[in-house]
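Field log, afternoon session.

UNIT: design team B
ACTIVITY: writing a sequence onto a fixed backbone
BACKBONE:
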């Protein structure tokens, strides 16, 4: 195994690594401090003199299929429930071919933004798309990105008083059988694994109690994570009170879902006592700042959650409520909305970068990624400061967030380069744009 010295970065998000890091066997094996050289011989050197180096960013909530319906005229300028009602009939036409291109595009966007590990919450299974999770695994492996694929589910449709069309939901037994199949086939809990599986009933208003409880039982059996939307809007609170006679967190507790293996998407409308309970159970919350602002859902109480012991991560959310799959852009949005919430001095660039790396890794139950430290996987994002927006910047790490970094110059996963000179290795971006655009047009026209 060769030893690579990432030498003399402009700045690096790690203590005691002023002169860089040494990588061997896909892992970080040494931090090289100021005035030092590597302790042992190295086989190669990469001059990082143009780069600010971050731990690879970790995206903990997305809906890849939604890249096909960005900025859709029927859905813009609406809040969540009206937005869903406008888009569900369109999404019901999803085909395997369109879904594959949607997944490929979203993963490519993410990796180009400095993301090295992603999670997608896929819950839509119209007839013909039963192999959706297999498609996502294939695309993630092809690109070389780490991924937690979540086998989402919905089994309450319009006929049951829910929001989704009847055609996109499945019955409980079909869902549970496929959950067990994909867990048996793809879930790899080993250190440094590229693919893991989580189970993700969509939301309280789209699944039954039995499905929630059986998903928990499967998660305990296979040692996997659990994920769902919760606390995104006040409409959701009202729905749970009307249908279950309790608030969403109480409903989760009744189902046994207040558990350390659970991370929640959005988590905006929690009371003080609910935040304390989530923290006591060491749960996670994925903060989705861009989506929350687009849909005017509210402001996640990140500081209270983190103070209570909740793991706070970041997610871009679906590309019809964010209209982008850019995680470093999401980091900047997180800084802005949280400063609006808490004050200019209360949330720093270090906070939001931590949420996008260590916090997100905790949400996914991973202790092998999310930081630049000895023993961690060599998942790294390299940003240069060559654009006009960075000219005059005094603090390179702060500049990435405050000046609006948009694309990584290089990305490394498990010690291998996956983005070079801003472009993903092995991906014809122009062709992908053309094929995805054509697929989106056919999809929207119902062809």
């Amino acid at each position: 195994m060769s030893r690579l010295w990432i030498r003399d970065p402009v700045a690096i998000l790690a203590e005691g690594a002023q002169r860089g890091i040494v990588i061997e066997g896909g892992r970080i094996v040494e931090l090289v401090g100021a005035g030092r050289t590597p302790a042992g011989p190295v086989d190669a050197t990469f001059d990082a003199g143009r780069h600010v180096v971050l731990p690879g960013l970790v995206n903990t909530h997305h809906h890849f299929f939604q890249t096909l319906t960005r900025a859709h005229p029927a859905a813009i300028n609406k809040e969540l429930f009206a937005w869903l009602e406008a888009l569900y009939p369109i999404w019901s036409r999803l085909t395997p071919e369109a879904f594959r291109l949607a997944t490929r595009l979203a993963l490519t966007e993410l990796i180009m933004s400095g993301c090295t590990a992603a999670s997608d919450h896929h819950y839509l299974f119209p007839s013909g798309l039963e192999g959706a999770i297999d498609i996502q695994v294939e695309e993630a492996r092809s690109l070389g990105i780490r991924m937690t694929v979540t086998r989402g589910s919905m089994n309450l449709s319009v006929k049951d008083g829910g929001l989704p069309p009847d055609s996109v939901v499945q019955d409980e037994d079909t869902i549970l059988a496929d959950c067990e199949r994909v867990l048996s086939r793809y879930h790899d809990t080993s250190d440094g694994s590229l693919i893991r599986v989580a189970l993700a009933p969509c939301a309280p208003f789209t699944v039954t109690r039995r499905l929630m409880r059986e998903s928990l039982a499967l998660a305990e059996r296979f040692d996997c994570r659990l994920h769902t939307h919760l606390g995104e809007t006040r409409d959701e609170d009202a729905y749970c009170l009307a249908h279950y006679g309790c608030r969403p967190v109480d409903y989760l507790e009744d189902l046994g879902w207040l558990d350390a293996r659970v991370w929640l998407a959005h988590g905006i409308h929690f009371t003080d006592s609910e935040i304390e309970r989530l923290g006591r159970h060491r749960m996670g919350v994925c903060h989705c700042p861009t989506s929350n602002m687009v849909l005017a859902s509210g402001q996640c109480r990140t500081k209270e959650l983190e103070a209570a012991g909740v793991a706070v991560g970041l997610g871009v959310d679906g590309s019809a409520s964010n209209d982008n799959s850019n995680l470093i852009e999401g980091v900047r949005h997180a800084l802005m909305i949280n400063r609006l919430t808490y004050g200019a001095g209360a949330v720093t660039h270090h906070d939001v970068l931590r949420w996008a790396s260590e916090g997100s890794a905790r949400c996914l139950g991973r202790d092998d990624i999310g930081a630049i430290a000895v023993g961690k996987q060599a998942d790294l994002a390299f940003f240069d400061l060559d654009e006009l927006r960075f000219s005059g910047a005094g603090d390179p790490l702060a500049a990435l967030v405050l000046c609006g970094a948009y694309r990584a110059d290089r990305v490394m996963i498990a010690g291998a380069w996956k983005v070079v000179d801003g472009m993903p290795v092995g991906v014809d971006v122009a062709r992908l744009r053309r094929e995805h655009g054509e697929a989106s047009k056919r999809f929207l026209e119902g062809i």
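LOG NOTE: The chain has a mean pLDDT of 96.
NEXT ACTIVITY: expression trials, pending approval
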